[in-house]
Model the fold of this input.
Amino acid sequence: MSTADNNRDVDMPPDICANCGKGEEDSSNSLKACTACKLVKYCNRDCQIVHRSQHKKACRKRAAELHDEKLFKEPPSLYGDCPICFLRLPLMESGQTYMSCCGKLICRGCIHSPVYDNEGNVVADTCPFCRNPAPKSDEIIMEMNERRIELNDAIAIHNRGCDYANGDRSFPQDYDKALELWHKAGELGSAEAYYNIGNAYYNGRGVEVDKNKAKHYWELAAMGGISEARHYLGHGEVEALNYERASRHYMIAVRGGYSKSLEMIKQMYSKGHATKEDYTKALQSYQEYLSEIKSSQRDKAAAADEEYRYY
Done:
């Protein structure tokens, strides 16, 4: 079968080379799917190159569809649940604390609650999850963080990158080192690290300004649950007048607890770019988020923090 006669693409049987028509039983190698679209298979790279002009349009279309399926899939809750009270951890970092001793994120409600031993006695200055004594000095905290980094703890590695980016905790300000650590943390599952890399490319911190790369890393962050990254992607779609895509981004961000995206949907509704139903759904989603993170224990902790702040 000649290449000229071969105009197959989307409707091709999946077990036949899209270029030469050979099946796996006729080929010395197993057929390899097109990595971009997964629609067709080829005997080898030579067949793929020959068929590229016929396949390019359908490939790009399907690759974009696959990308959007991943991009707009409901992401996981960014921080998950508190391992003690099992309620959803709030979006705001002020609502939870990272414990260097055990690598757990614990809500402020559980951090402020008393810890009891096996006999019911209150144990002071103890991690509420692993029961290890609280560190007594900055040196001990640094040692704990180093151990978490050695264990490939994505949060600890991300936090160390932030130390280098900001010149905190006696670390020199070094954006190259920060980006190195953020890339490693991202590969280990830190969506926050990808968000910071996106910000670096957007603002030109340690790298040349590159809006396409910024968008790429914000997309990775958004798919990992970073609502602020999702919010910025929504802004980009508004600027491109893609209001339906913008609304989809904002709605996901609202469900993640990002109030600024709720305000953007309100503005879109006022300008006729979103429906009343869209805004109503956004309000309901945000209320559902608030109910998921609320507890009397957390309210007491927030009140105590506020009182201490004005003491």
In short: The radius of gyration is 25 Å. The chain is about 55% helix and 5% strand.
